[in-house]
């Protein structure tokens, strides 16, 4: 493996680690770690689209949205599938499927309410900084289409 190919593989591994760290911070409800995942300052304006939300722009509004999500979610876990990383220069694009399991407050004194599963396809754009790869943009869209399995069923009368 030549040196350039080795560096590209190392960069991809670093981007994958940064992407994983972002989701793990969200799972733990660690706003400080999640804040550290995003580009600092205002040189490049960060943006975020949560499923069903309008576009949020600017670090303050984006981080406030995550604080609200964390404050109102008792449990959340992400199982990432279909992760793909592509890069050009100092920018990396990560696409993935977020298989989300979450639960809210319980009723009747239980520790946790019913768990709900859902699929979201996400695009995460990272920029390389002196402190490593940082999120520039996150866009999540709910998966509303049925799976391919439904297409295989015979629906003839």
N- to C-terminal separation? 58 Å
Number of helices: 4
Radius of gyration using CA atoms only: 18 Å
Biggest beta sheet attributes: 6 strands, mixed
In the CATH hierarchy, the architecture is: Roll
Q: How many domains would you count in the coordinates?
A: 1
The overall pLDDT, averaged over residues, is 89
The total beta strand count reads 6
Q: Unreliable segments (pLDDT under 50, ≥5 consecutive)?
A: none
Q: Give the CATH topology.
A: Nuclear Transport Factor 2, Chain: A
CATH class: Alpha Beta
Structural class, judged by helices and strands? Answer: alpha+beta
The main sheet orders its strands as: 2-1-6-5-4-3
Domain SnoaL-like: 15-143
Protein name: Nuclear transport factor 2 family protein
InterPro entries: NTF2-like_dom_sf (IPR032710), SnoaL-like (IPR037401)
Pfam family, one: SnoaL_3
Describe the structure.
- This is Nuclear transport factor 2 family protein.
- Residues 15-143 form the SnoaL-like domain.
- The chain has 157 residues and is an alpha+beta fold.
- The protein has one domain (3-144): Nuclear Transport Factor 2, Chain: A (Roll), CATH 3.10.450.50.
- 32% of the residues lie in helices and 37% in strands.
- It is built from four helices and six strands.
- It has helices spanning 3-28, 31-37, 59-71, 148-152, and strands at 47-49, 56-57, 75-88, 91-103, 115-129, 132-142.
- The protein has a six-stranded mixed beta sheet with strand order 2-1-6-5-4-3.
- A hairpin with a 2-residue loop joins strand 3 (75-88) and strand 4.
- 15% of the residues are buried.
- The mean pLDDT is 89.
